[in-house]
Hints:
Shape: rod-shaped
Number of strands: 27
Structural class: alpha+beta
Number of helices: 18
Distance between the termini: 115 Å
Largest sheet: 6 strands, antiparallel
Helix content: 25-40%
Radius of gyration: 48 Å
Strand order of the largest sheet: 8-7-6-11-10-9
Mean pLDDT: 81
Strand content: 25-35%
Amino acid sequence: MADRGGSALSLPDDWPAHPDPILALNRMGSFDWDLDTGLMQMDAQAHDIFDVRPDEYDDRPATLSKRVPPGEARRLDTAVSQALKDGSENYGAYFRMRRRDGTLRWTHTQGYIRRDDTGRPRRIIGIVRDATQELGESEARLDQAARDEARREQTSVVELTTAALAHARTVQDVIDVLKDTHGLVHLGATSLVMGLVEAGRIRLVAEGPSDSFVPGTRVTRIDEPYPMSEAVRTLGPRFIESPEEFAERYPILWPHITGLNITSAAYLPLIVQAQPIGAMGLLYSDRHGFTPEERNILVALGSSIAQSLQRAMFYEQEMDLAQGLQQAMLPRSIPSVPGADVAVRYRAATIGGSVGRDIGGDWYDLIPLPGGRVGAVIGDVQGHDTHAAAVMGQLRIVLRAYAAEGHTPATVMARASVFLHELDTDRSATCLYAEADLSTGVLQMVRAGHIDPLVRRPDGSCRRVTVPGGLPLGLSAEFGRLEYPVGTVELDPGDTLLLCTDGLVEQPGADLDDGMRTLTALVATGPDDVRDLADRLIDVAAERCGDDDVALLLLRRRGPEGPQSGRRLQRHVAPGDPTALTEARHMIRTAVGVWGARDRADEIELVADELITNALMHTEGSAIVTLRALTGSGPRLRVEVEDSSSALPRRREAGESGVSGRGLLLVELLTDAWGVEARGGGKAVWCEFVVPDQH
């Protein structure tokens, strides 16, 4: 504690010969120590500081030993001796001095060393003063500094915790932040508990560490004698400053936590808008009591946590609503389709920090149609919000209705576009609609701004199917009546059709074509089973954590149950085109012979000719004749003749000439089954002929 240096106590030339009055004014005493004689003279102020009377002091420093404890004397002698040896001009030291009443008081001394020409020390002139107040003030400043530092640390805890909670989206995220080891360290707590108010009770949602759970506290009543219940009930914090206080105030709880070595605890109500939503307890094993500043900071921490919990609760409520709406808009179940294996999947987007946006307008649908056909739909309404989901639900319903009415794929898409425009929304939608005849494998597809489908072969090869497309749905006002060209693809037994939204394809930094190539390779190497393949694809989408939702539909055509493969032929016959009618007849006769129904060729050709002729005579448009070989429940040939009139055929009496009115009689007589199906604005008359099994 010695102060060394060449100038700190250098005495000026005009140092007064008798400085006692000056020193006294500054409550200092002086001494003059002759090193040759060993005598040290002190003034009256110095006598007072050492608490000795003039008659008790004989000018010898050793006489002061009864006032300076041995340890302090040794430290003071060491400081003086070191200054004398190392050539210092001065020294300074603090030491404790025992007064007459036995109390210890801090004293400070400074001395100036006078040396002769050879450098030998001859004399020390110095001062002594009572430093008790000075050091007391210093200690007070140190204590205040320590308190300020503790306050800064506590404030930092609140700031760090608040910063971590800013990224918490769900209640579990909030809990994880607080339960995390680093979170407990930041909070300075040994253990943490948290409960939320639910239906007049407190449900424990977090406790940490894992071995700190108290049996019987998972759900407690607010009126029970527990500290969290008391904090919720009174809306005020509960500070417990000692183990004894804990045991006295909460005798039911204390025996269960003695193993945690708790020395104090703080239970904070979590209040939002003057209503308690829960409570949190911080238990400490290294502190006793709480200063007013610490209590205020902990209350502020509880407020910050309460606000984070409220945000998380609102987020979860909105997500429950949004996801419920999404699920309500999607089909509740997918019907089983004879002749096909189907798998559908949906994954909501995850957009960090955007509350309520983990929902979108992607959808899928599978629509059973007459004649063993099925409609497959995939679509995406613009946007990621509940409005997009609501629009999606309405669009899905009308698409299903138009398809079930029997409209052609192009008409279904055009009408859906008009509907979306008239819905008075600013949203557009992309869509792909595929109508599949699983008995023949023929797919008729229309595309409205959507990405192309993929087809995977049984050998694992996969290709992108280019489908001619039109504009997205809902743009009919800007571009007039929309036309959607129809593309035709044939699915062989074992082929799998993949329809998906762009969330499965688009990747950051890559264009759409690259994404389609990546998806094609992924499908080619995926599992054979459509359900396993769907799971694989949706898992990949989840790993990417994309900011778009994903819908996908997989349809795999099964192999024929019988030995014969289904086949299909189709011909358009325009009015006034005898060549087309002749070619249609020739097509039917040739196909019937090749497909093993030669014995019924005349009947089939006659019925088909009658249906085509009726369509041309009684409607204004062309006729579409389709011949199919069916294999589902026995070999059959099916003839369909489609026209643009919605008027149903009816039996009529033969006219006087006897050449008309017998059409339906012939159909009933020669076919094994027949009927009429609505097809949009028109109809299709069909008939079936059972043919012998050729194998």
